[in-house]
């Protein structure tokens, strides 16, 4: 817990004009609100915390008093202090912000788009397709053959020959990862993840009680020799990688590294879980995607997960695992103990949408390209000190801020009606306070206004004023 506090309390504007006790109190509130500090935890004694953070005991005493007054800490004389939340406040699990019902809030916490217009027609056709399935029990743990065939065709068209029995349908990409971890990783076994990485993937590894090792992605993407040597040294049971428009950095893994990965993983006894959630969202017209990592697999070490959430709609909870047929059969058996099978009607809708793939994906790419350029232009105009590489695909910009203020800025921005996911959400150690993920999935006008408010919030961080604390939304 002290490590997270040491990272968080370093957050302040360049001028450092706020009193230290306010900085400390605000940091603790932020850790509570986004789930990095649990409720009901006994806080360190004032003298202990002051020594650990290198500040005066008077500062800690004032910060605890501030937290008691705002309802984030309760104390009993002689017994200590415990974390809590004010009445009506809620805290969620580690992950991304969910969309809000607040009409005035611009939500940049969620990288997802509204449903495509083709969804309603696909749903109507799916209802008509339902009749042949009604005479059966409806439980097919591997998924409907018609959908598995459609997904297998997509892989084959990409140059990766795939049979339907190599595909299992899941309740989204998140469940695909969860099921693989249930099958492959015993509690205490080591798992290798990138840093930064997708927050809900970290949640899955934590739930599986895996021991996580991390490989740090640099500003230019993966260092091939370093990643391969890390895989050899870690000897992890699984390694989770996002090679297509990495979430959140946006990098695209080169073909030469993809070719070397499976053999290195096999030598280390590591299975590769390759997340292809963004594979359909190449935005630059002249970009040719490298071959899938699985196309270089000769030893059945690569398990590919994908789904409908990004290119189609997050409300359609359809994902899949592509891998060796024997492992897919074992995965289906393990899945029975979780949720039996995916909904039949949802799978029929997904199959109909995949028939319209060219039309839907083409429209998504054009829309995202315009919105990406709009967001980038707004950032350059309003926050010129921030640095970022323009992603060639995906849905997000990974911005490096002018100071380590990501968590504090996220709290300040929400007061101005903008929700963002700060950098520490994307790592297992609570660092990356200099970074923030900014999706370009909203309309252009919203993106421009969101950046304007972010710039105002950034300026506000340097002003010596006290914040009012609004009710946070659930994190999911």
**Structural class determined from secondary elements:** alpha/beta
Taking Cα atoms only, what radius of gyration do you get, to the nearest Å?
23 Å
Annotation field: number of helices? 15
Uncertain segments are 10-16, 88-98, 467-476
Strand order, main sheet: write it out.
Answer: 4-10-9-8-7-5-6
Kindly report the average pLDDT value: 88
Q: How much of the residues is beta strand, in percent? A: 5-15%
Task: Assign a percent range to the helix content.
Answer: 40-55%
Largest sheet: 7 strands, mixed
CA-based shape: globular
N-end to C-end Cα span: 22 Å
Describe the structure.
The protein is of the alpha/beta class. It starts with a helix and ends in a 15-residue tail after the last helix. The longest helix has 26 residues, at 357-382. α2 packs across α4, α7 crosses α11 (325-336) and α9 packs parallel to α10. It has 15 helices and 13 strands.
Salient structural properties:
single chain, 476 residues, alpha/beta, 7-stranded mixed β-sheet, 4-stranded mixed β-sheet, 15 helices, 40% helix, 13% strand, globular
Quickly describe the structure.
The protein is α/β, with parallel strands linked by helices.
Please write out the topology:
Elements: H1 2-8, H2 20-33, H3 46-53, H4 57-70, E1 73-76, E2 80-83, E3 106-108, H5 119-129, H6 145-157, E4 167-170, H7 173-184, E5 190-195, H8 199-207, E6 211-216, H9 224-234, E7 238-241, H10 255-268, E8 271-275, E9 302-307, E10 319-322, H11 325-336, H12 344-355, H13 357-382, E11 396-400, H14 406-415, E12 418-422, E13 435-439, H15 444-461
């Amino acid at each position: 817990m002290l490590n997270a506090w040491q990272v968080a309390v370093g957050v302040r504007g360049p001028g450092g004009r706020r009193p230290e006790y306010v900085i400390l109190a605000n940091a603790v509130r932020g850790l509570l609100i986004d789930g990095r500090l649990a409720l009901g935890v006994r806080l360190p004694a004032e003298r202990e915390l002051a020594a650990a953070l290198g500040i005066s005991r008077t500062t800690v005493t004032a910060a605890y008093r501030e937290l008691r007054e705002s309802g984030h800490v309760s104390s009993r004389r002689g017994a200590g202090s415990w974390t809590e939340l004010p009445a009506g406040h809620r805290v969620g699990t580690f992950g991304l912000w969910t969309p809000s019902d607040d009409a005035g809030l611009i939500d940049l916490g969620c990288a997802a788009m509204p449903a495509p217009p083709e969804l309603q027609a696909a749903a109507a056709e799916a209802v008509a397709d339902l009749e042949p399935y009604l005479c059966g029990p409806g439980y097919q743990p591997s998924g409907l053959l018609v959908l598995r065939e459609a997904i297998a065709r997509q892989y084959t068209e990409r140059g990766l020959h795939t049979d339907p029995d190599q595909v299992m349908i899941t309740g989204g990409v998140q469940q695909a990862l969860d099921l693989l971890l249930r099958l492959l990783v015993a509690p205490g076994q080591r798992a290798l993840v990138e840093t930064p990485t997708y927050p809900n993937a970290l949640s899955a590894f934590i739930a599986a009680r895996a021991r996580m090792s991390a490989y740090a992605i640099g500003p230019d993407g993966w260092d091939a020799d370093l990643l391969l040597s890390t895989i050899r040294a870690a000897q992890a049971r699984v390694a989770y990688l996002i090679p297509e428009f990495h979430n959140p950095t946006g990098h695209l893994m080169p073909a030469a590294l993809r070719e070397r990965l499976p053999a290195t993983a096999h030598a280390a006894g590591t299975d590769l879980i390759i997340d292809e959630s963004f594979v359909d969202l190449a935005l630059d017209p002249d970009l040719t995607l490298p071959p899938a990592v699985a196309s270089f697999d000769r030893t059945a070490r690569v398990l590919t997960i994908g789904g409908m959430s990004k290119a189609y709609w997050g409300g359609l909870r359809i994902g899949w695992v592509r891998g060796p047929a024997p492992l897919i059969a074992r995965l289906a058996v393990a899945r029975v103990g979780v949720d039996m099978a995916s909904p039949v009607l949802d799978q029929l809708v997904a199959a109909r949408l995949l028939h319209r793939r060219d039309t839907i994906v083409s429209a998504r790419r054009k829309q995202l390209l315009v919105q990406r350029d709009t967001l980038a232009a707004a950032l350059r105009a309003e926050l010129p000190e921030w640095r970022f590489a323009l992603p060639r695909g995906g849905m997000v910009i990974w911005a490096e801020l002018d100071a380590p203020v990501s968590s504090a800025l996220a709290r300040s921005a929400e007061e101005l009606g903008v929700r963002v996911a700060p950098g520490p959400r994307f790592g297992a150690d609570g660092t990356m306070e200099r970074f923030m993920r900014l999706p370009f999935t909203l309309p252009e006008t919203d993106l421009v206004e969101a950046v304007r408010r972010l710039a105002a919030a950034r300026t506000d961080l340097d002003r010596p004023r006290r914040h009012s604390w609004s009710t946070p939304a659930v994190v999911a």
